[in-house]
Amino acid sequence: MYWDATIETLPDERLRELQLQRLQDTVRRAGQSPFYRQRLAQAGINAEPLQSLEDVRRLPFTTKDDLRAAGPDMLTCPLTEIVRLHASSGTTGQATVIYYTRRDIAAWADLVARSMFMTGVRPGDVFQNMMGYGLFTGGLGFHYGAELLGALTIPAGAGNSLRQIQLMQQFGTTVLHIIPSYALYLLATFAQGGVDPRELHLRMAFIGAEPHTEEMRRRIEEAYGVKAYNSYGLSEMNGPGVAFECPEQNGLHVWEDAFLLEVVDPVTLEPAGPGETGELVFTSLTRQGMPILRYRTRDLASLYPEPCPCGRPHRRISRIQGRTDDMLVVKGVNIFPIQIERVLLARPEVDANYLVELTRENYNDVMHVKVEVKEEFFQEDLRYLQRLQKRLAEALRNELLVTPKVELVEPNTLPRSEGKAVRVADKR
Ligand code: DLL
Description:
This protein has 12 helices and 20 strands. The chain has helices at residues 5-8, 12-30, 34-42, 64-70, 102-119, 137-149, 161-171, 180-192, 214-224, 337-345, 375-378, 382-400, and strands at 82-87, 97-101, 126-129, 152-154, 175-178, 204-208, 227-234, 239-245, 252-254, 259-264, 278-284, 295-301, 316-317, 322-323, 328-330, 333-335, 350-361, 364-373, 405-409, 424-426. Strand 5 (175-178), helix 8 (180-192) and strand 6 (204-208) form a beta-alpha-beta unit. It starts with a helix and ends with a strand. The structure holds 5'-O-[hydroxy(phenylacetyl)phosphoryl]adenosine.
């Protein structure tokens, strides 16, 4: 069963033809914006059409800084044709603003509906959207997709944990949209209220908007009694609905009729080898108001070469393994926070939250890893906790090649966030 059988099962060759045609249209359209008019002229690209998909490499890259500096100069149409804007949740500096025409909004909703339908959401499902409504794309982006699909949509928004649980009970929620770190935090509220999420009507969850590990997914699936699907997107490419897991739960299909994907070496910017991890670079293929060429996401992932057993020719990427700007250099060693999560969550004693703090003592980098340990293990004797602390430090050293100072703390004592989790505090 497909949401859009023609597009979802288009033979590979036809899909590439469609991409080329849309790429040509997009370059033409982008050239109408003051920003790209200048950029394309500088790069010596005129109206002459690109001959093949590989020709995308002749186009200039676009970065977040470009978008910030250009602002409304990115637009290919008058502001009167724009019906909505969102801004990305950048933690540093000025937010990046994304503008949508009416058609852009409709096309985006269709991609989200397609993604949800692929995993098995149907009219009759009760969809509780627990992501921030507002400038963040997670709330409204999913909202319109879910309505288009025909699910009963509860615009719950982020936070307010008690209320979220009440809504699930009252309306028999079957599908959740939730930030993965928040899904784990919420378990404490369930426990306090004596409610077992497995006994509600939940059957599925969409988790995304922040990096997470397979261990994290498994924990969510077990605790909630659901299938949890990884959902990837970024404001610059609409928001959610760029890449999504199918029922195979093995890699995320990039909707290639709407986005042209490249995986590049983040240093040389040359294409990464087959199956090699690199930076994801996207070109929008259907956006009207604000097309973006070769956007450098800073997200690191790899492309799966094999076709998916689900039959969709849209190629899959791995889960996001980190961001180029996320990488920590500790004592000269490169570390991604996600590696730390993988080690910690492999231990059953470890609870929902952890925080990595970096300090400098006597000119040396010191890495502190604060880990919440489940209540029941705090009742064990001190020796048990000391052994756990030592085991975690060893496991981290084996993975990272740096020995951290591990500190075990009680559940719900580390700072928590209703939005994307903040895992690293670099105080050097
Ligand atoms: O987070 C869009 C979104 C909303 C995706 C809801 C999925 C669900 P931004 O706020 O612009 O947009 O942040 C985009 O978040 O470049 C990644 O670094 C990260 N990210 C998003 N989804 C995932 C994911 C939304 N599934 C940035 N796994 C991206 C890992 C993710 N990282």
